[in-house]
Sequence to fold (653 residues):
Amino acid sequence: MKHILSRKLHAKQICLLTLLAFNACFALMQKNILGSTRNLMLALASAVFAAIMVTLTPCRFKRCLQVALFLLTPAMAFIIVQEYAQYAILTILPMFVTPAGLGNLFLYALILVFLYLVLNRMKYSSSILLLTASIFGAANYFVMMFRTSPIMAPDFASFGTAMDVAGGYVYTLDQSATQAVIYTLSAMCLYLGFDEKKGLRPRFRLGVLAVFLGSFSVFYTQFRTGKYMEKNNLRLNIWAPEKNYASNGSLLSLLISYTYYKVDVPEGYSANKAAEIASRYESDSSADGKHPNVIAVMNEAFSDLEVQAPLKTSEDYMPFIHGLTENVRKGNLYVSVRGTGTATSEFEFLTGNSMAFLPYRCIAYNNYLNAPMVSLTTTLREQGYGANIAVHPGNRDAWNRDVAYPNLGFEVFYDYTYLTDCELIHGHISDKSDYDFLIRQYEEFRSQSDLPFYLFNVTIQNHSPYDAPDRQVEEKIRLLNTNVWKNGTSQYINLIKTSDEQFQRLTEYFEAVDEPTVILLFGDHQPSLSAKKKYCHAGDSLENTVNQHTVPYVIWANYDIGTDTQHDMSVNYLSAWLLDTIQSPMTGYQKFLLDMSQEVPLLTQFAYRGDDGILHEAGEESAYTSVLNEYAILQYNNIFDSKNHLDTFFHLE
Fold:
């Protein structure tokens, strides 16, 4: 013992002590005094245990201990990730003997073996796996906090956009997440504290490689084509994926979500079948119909939270829109995303295609818009509309818009760099400045052309987060039932009041314009209000989930379009409904969509409801399965079957 204590500290031991000190300091970051004390005790206990294992274990046992810890690394990684997911240790341990738990352990073990093949050192392989697992768990924790749904495979396609908005959020860790960090640092200290000589010789590493390749092949075969996943009910609930992340474990659930990335050919699809369905709808002539100015505004996170539960406020936060009763068509709009995924609502609106027939949470702008695609814009251009402008006062490459917009038929795309000397609200360009720019575009175009004007505008003022200290707006409207609603709701409703006021100002401008003009306003999704949702116990009804994916839409005109204040539909039908409102020529596809909106008015990625009023989970068999399959066939032809594309059905004559 005296010899041990008198030894000089090596560099790795200094590193160990530094990590342990950081671990203890991190434990004190918990704001709650009880939680801080508990975490400090946990950190110190972990430090003492690691120090004892590293310094006092007899040399003849150290190698055996190191091998044992190396073999336990997958279990430790699983515990860390599940701790971030709000599990307690006593809840995690029984999962080790379940099919889902074993699947997660096998995946972590595969990663560990791969790292060992590359590094040939147990302590570095284990440490990197634990650090990677902790980063994954933390990322999942924060994504759940900000949008109440976990990371899924399709999210990686929009990583750049996620990074653009990540800086505005406030990042805090609760008790469980703090413990996960402590576990990570403590385990890494323990692993890094061991001496380790050279790893396996080349011939033995070849044996490990064979084991790795064999194990991976067996797993991949079972995962893709075997019955193991189906037999053990290892699947993804697409309307509440957090439930499966709870029961299946985060890593396995992430891998399962990858399988939803593949586009399946609709049942019974053929070019002849698509043509047979399309033959029932004849496209109009581009010379027919009326051609008023068309302005479509998708307002960021614009919604009426009353659809979820009563919201008591000191005054109406949407008085203008609530009060519109003449020359207006409005109602509820059902969307496939919540808290994020703006481009998904854009895609469904502009193209009429539905996310119901595409992989869950994929971003069509990233995955499928690498070539021209028919849209509302191409239909209006074929009628002779001018301008054909897209405006978004954010980054040009967010959601791949700089590629998607030209392929959707837009001739000009203005991003935030074109909106100079703008008013900022909530840290973003305000709706007022956005609409001022819109009006300037109209006036400049009108001074040069007498063609009907078309512009599509995606605002940014109401973008999350809503509880960031440096982005607060004056709360003129007070939230009275704070016990029901989450942090940031007061800020949010005051932003909505501003949007309502600016929409009124926009309509007042065009009310005075002496030519027919139609303005469509709709939200892309409901807001992501900060909530540390424990997704190990998450649960909700399908009806409530639909309510959380409901936003308003308003079609206003400065001439007589009639009045309909209770017409609900999903966003994929909205462009066809807009064309019908202005009595515009329509393609056969848009006529089909108009009929579909009567028969299946709600169709999103996770649910549908027919005209009988019964709500169904996506994929569930019903009396509407046949007509939904027809929709899927036409959409597949539109997006994926370029050789047999029904041009006359998707374009005007």
